[in-house]
Each structure stands twice: as structure tokens, then as C-alpha cells.
Design brief:
- It is a single chain.
- The protein is 62% helix and 2% strand.
- By secondary structure, the protein is an all-alpha fold.
- Helix 1 packs parallel to helix 4, helix 1 packs antiparallel against helix 5 and helix 4 packs antiparallel against helix 5.
- The chain starts with a helix and ends in a 25-residue tail after the last helix.
Length: 162
């Protein structure tokens, strides 16, 4: 669990949680701008991690069987239990804090909508870092090449069409 990706996820989750709690409590104009910046930076980190992880997974898919659930949710045996636990915890906290912030401060200056609603985007950070970790360090079963059944209608065997 000594991965920089795991440590970064924990750090970014902590920063997001503290910033959201502070922004919800203070809710001054300068703090509203600050929390939007934090949320959008973490969303961007998630998008970059997602794309980087996806690209790396596509390269690995030539030799490994990779599923979306394994890649982005660390399902199955793709990651050791401590890594899965920490990464799932970070994703859960990001989603929960983002929703809670949006619900606690559901208006800004008496108008519907809140700058804290940007926090719901931060869950992308957890998903992206999960995908990046799995693509770089995860275990996937070897690809089974050439073992397709010729009786499978989904493959398009000419005997089944007519």
C-alpha cells in the first residue's frame, strides 16, 4: 500500500473534506471561490487519472482480461485488501462529503444553487485514481486468446445464420 497514487488519494480526500467543511461553515464569498477552485482541480485530477488509467489498461488488455468494475472500482482480486479498502474509503468520502456540502448549503445569497454543489464532481478524483492504480499495479487474469466457441451465435458463425 506504499503507492504514491494511494497516498495522493488520501491526501486529496483530506484536503477536499477540510476545505468543504470550512467552506460550509464560513461560506464567505472568498471561501466560495476557493472551494470551487479546489473542487474543479480535484475533478481535473480525476479526469486526467481516468484517461491515463484507461490508456494504460487498453495497453494491458492485449495480455490481460480487464473489466470496468475491476479497473475503476477495484472489484475482485485486482488489488490487495488494504489498497481496496483505502481507495474505496476515499471514493466514499469524496461522494458523501460532496453531496453533504451541496445539501447543507443549497443556496447562495438567497438564490437556489450553491457553490458547494461543485463538490459532487470530486468523486471523479477517486474513480480516476482507482483506474490509474489498477492499470499500473493491479492484477488481472491472463487473456484467454483463441478459446472462443464456434457455436456461440454472438461470434457470427455462418452456420447459425441460415
Amino acid at each position: 500500500m506504499n503507492s504514491r497514487i494511494v497516498r495522493a488519494n488520501v491526501l486529496l480526500t483530506a484536503v477536499f473534506t477540510v476545505a468543504t467543511l470550512l467552506a460550509a461553515w464560513v461560506f464567505a464569498p472568498w471561501m466560495r471561490v476557493g472551494i470551487v477552485v479546489v473542487d474543479l482541480v480535484l475533478f481535473t485530477v480525476g479526469v486526467v487519472g481516468f484517461l491515463w488509467g484507461y490508456f494504460a489498461a487498453v495497453q494491458r488488455s492485449r495480455t490481460d482480461e480487464i473489466s470496468v468494475a475491476e479497473l475503476f472500482l477495484l472489484m475482485g482480486n485486482v488489488a490487495p485488501k488494504p489498497v481496496r479498502r483505502v481507495m474505496a474509503w476515499c471514493l466514499g468520502v469524496q461522494v458523501t462529503v460532496g453531496l453533504a456540502g451541496a445539501l447543507v448549503r443549497n443556496s447562495t445569497d438567497g438564490k437556489a444553487g450553491s457553490t458547494l454543489a461543485f463538490g459532487v464532481l470530486v468523486g471523479m478524483c477517486g474513480l480516476g485514481l482507482n483506474g490509474l492504480w489498477a492499470a499500473r499495479h493491479g492484477y488481472f487474469a491472463p487473456r484467454t486468446i483463441g478459446k472462443e466457441s464456434t457455436d456461440d451465435p454472438a461470434i457470427g458463425n455462418d452456420e447459425n445464420h441460415g
